[in-house]
Amino acid sequence: MAEGAEDVPVVYLHDIKREYRQGEATLTILNGAKLALWPGQSVALVAPSGSGKSTLLHIAGLLESPDEGEVYVAGTPTSQMSDIDRTQIRRSDIGFVYQSHRLLPEFSALENVMLPQMIRGLKRSETVKRATEILAYLGLGDRITHRPAELSGGEQQRVAIARAVANAPRVLFADEPTGNLDPGTADHVFNALMQLVKATRVAMLIATHNMDLAARMDRRVSLSNGQVVELE
């Protein structure tokens, strides 16, 4: 896929199967699951706890391998890739936001956002510039020197979002990103996510129980019998 092309999904899950052993029993979590994520499109994954939402996110984000099926990133199959190549794709093309912000407590907001860029090998001056710009874009320009403990819950989560998009990923995965926030703060954080999707054309898949937020996204999907189903 050529850089910037939008005729191929950013991520495509094809016939994904994933099973787990529980004692003598085998639990089938995903069974023939298919899902395409397109540039600039937001998708809500709405399903009950234990249905496989996190498993789907982990497989799509190359954090976990399926038992069967293929995960394509920008049209490229990943199942036969080395761990090093998969790690490189995660660093350059994939961003993650979790329910808990997972910020490093000893680092400032700016340093937390700089870190993934430095791991990727960018110059410090470049990482400072980009991290500062992203934090300012998310309304945190006056909080860049603050450590996580000095920030509100909503501010912490916006820093986590900034960190997730620091390397300009193709796709953003979020697992209940507003689950620990009050309704007003959750709405503010959600708006920040949607703003970034439209501004950067990143694809986004959010696992959420919040139907009000899901209704504001481009697509809504669920899981049924191990497969992805489209919702109205």
TrEMBL record:
Record keywords, A-Z: ATP-binding, Cell inner membrane, Cell membrane, Lipoprotein, Membrane, Nucleotide-binding, Translocase, Transport
Keyword Nucleus applies: no
GO cellular component: membrane protein complex; plasma membrane
Coiled-coil parts of chain: none
Gene Ontology biological process terms from the UniProt entry: lipoprotein localization to outer membrane; protein localization to outer membrane
GO molecular function: ATP binding; ATP hydrolysis activity; transmembrane transporter activity
Entry's family note: Belongs to the ABC transporter superfamily. Macrolide exporter (TC 3.A.1.122) family.
Name of the protein: Lipoprotein-releasing system ATP-binding protein
